[in-house]
Amino acid sequence: MSAVLFFLAAIGAIAGAIGVVMLRNPFYGVLSLASHLVCLAGLFLLLRAEFVAFVQVVVYAGAVMVLYVFVVAYVGGGQQQPSGAVLRILGPLFAIGLAVELCVAMLGSALEGIHGKGAGYIPGFGSPAHIGKLLLTKYLFPFEAASIVLLIAAVGAVVLARRRRGLEDGTEAEAEEFRIRTPHPAYIGTMAEGAGVRPSGGDDPFLPEVETVSDAAPRGGW
Amino acid sequence: MAIGWYLAVAAIVFCVGAGGVLARRNPLTILLCLELMLNGANLALIAFARMWGGEDGQVFALVVMVVAAAEVTVGLGLIVALYRRRLPVDVDELSELHG
To answer: Could you report the predicted ipTM of this complex, rounded to two decimals?
Structure first.
């Protein structure tokens, strides 16, 4: 049973990886990567890494992929140009060479353990309780460093992607002017209304007519 | 399944990602291929954690995920900035820093 699950998940993971590289449209590439991540989470479960598999599905295949989808939708993907002639041949050759080298290293490895099914493990191996205990005791410093890295990355992304002066069609001065001229609805509790002052600019189409007692002349239609 | 099978899958995923980084020109696809490489490394880490019966490798995989998330955030911010400046979203065209 575990062999069947392994091959299903492994084939799914490798197919997803090849799809990311081969598909021309980046949007399909993102979807392919999401399926790859879910299959990889299955492999993690087979390796008794419950918490990592959970994080993989929720954070990676969930949050990070949504970020990708939004950026692809914003940028628009565009037409994928074929890469330069040299790298188009050299890239796959390098990948195949790397794969051969890794396989040679694995086959020639003196590690006895890779031919077995793994060492014995205690109950609750890889559960959130165990991982959380490790994160807050033995690996407290990497945990805090990771949180700082995330904070810096979030600030950096905001700084990189913010609007800059002079790069857009509309400058910031125009935006400021637009903001001032933007009409606001009547009866929102401004101080002028509280004092009974009719909002200036009676011809403003956004402001409704303010009715007063003297103004309550009979109108037609009733 | 023997641990070696998981390591083989990790190696294949890593190599596919490495080939993609070299062969593609769209920065979005290159970021996706970088994710593939990090995931291959993650799978190897977790396979070795299972082999030794320790959980330290899983903690390390979690840290790798954090680094990957940070890299994605900054990379996508750069791509959005490129798009805002109406520069071509193509790594071969972006050679201003080329000496």
So the answer is: 0.91
